[in-house]
C-alpha cells in the first residue's frame, strides 16, 4: 500500500478536498492508497469546502484540521504533496524518505461558491491524474501543468 500525505497551510480547504478526492479516485481506479492531509498549522475545515464536496457526493463532515505531527507515522509516506505555495515554502525538506510533489492551487477562501467549485474541479483533475499514474505504474506528474486531463467516470 502506498501512503500519501497532502499538505497545505491550515488543512482547512484545499488539502481536505484533495484528501477526499484522492481517496475517491483510488476507490474508483482500484488503487490501494492510504491518504492523509495535514497543515503547517491546524484550524478547522471550512464550511464552503464541505458544501462543494457534498455536491459531488463526498462528505467532509468527519474531517478535522490537523498538523503533520497529528498524522499517524508522519515520517513514512511514499508521496508528500503540497497544494499551496506557503506549505511548500514552510516544508521544503520533509523529514522522511519520500517523493515530493508540488501542485499549487488558488486559495478559494473568501470567494464565491463558484470559485470553490472551480478549485475543487481542478483538484479532482490533478488527483485523478496522480492516482491513474500510480495505477499504471508511472511516476506521478511532477507538476500540475504536466497532468493530463483524466475522465472522472
From TrEMBL:
Q: Which InterPro entries match?
A: Ptyr_pPase, Ptyr_pPase_sf
Q: Which Pfam families match?
A: LMWPc (PF01451)
Which keywords annotate this record? Arsenical resistance
Residue ranges constituting the Phosphotyrosine protein phosphatase I domain according to the UniProt record = 2-133
Descriptive protein name: Arsenate reductase
Amino acid at each position: 500500500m502506498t501512503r500519501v500525505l497532502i499538505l497545505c497551510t491550515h488543512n482547512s480547504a484545499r488539502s481536505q478536498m484533495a484528501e477526499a478526492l484522492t481517496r475517491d479516485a483510488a476507490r474508483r481506479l482500484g488503487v490501494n492508497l492510504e491518504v492523509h492531509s495535514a497543515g503547517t498549522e491546524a484550524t478547522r475545515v471550512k464550511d464552503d469546502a464541505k458544501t462543494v464536496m457534498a455536491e459531488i457526493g463526498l462528505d467532509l463532515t468527519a474531517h478535522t484540521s490537523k498538523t503533520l505531527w497529528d498524522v499517524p507515522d508522519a515520517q513514512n509516506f511514499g508521496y508528500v504533496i503540497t497544494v499551496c505555495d506557503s506549505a511548500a515554502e514552510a516544508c521544503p525538506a520533509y523529514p522522511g524518505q519520500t517523493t515530493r510533489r508540488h501542485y499549487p492551487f488558488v486559495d478559494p477562501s473568501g470567494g464565491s461558491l463558484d470559485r470553490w467549485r472551480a478549485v475543487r474541479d481542478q483538484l479532482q483533475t490533478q488527483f485523478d491524474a496522480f492516482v491513474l499514474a500510480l495505477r499504471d505504474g508511472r511516476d506521478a506528474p511532477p507538476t500540475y501543468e504536466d497532468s493530463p486531463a483524466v475522465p472522472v467516470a
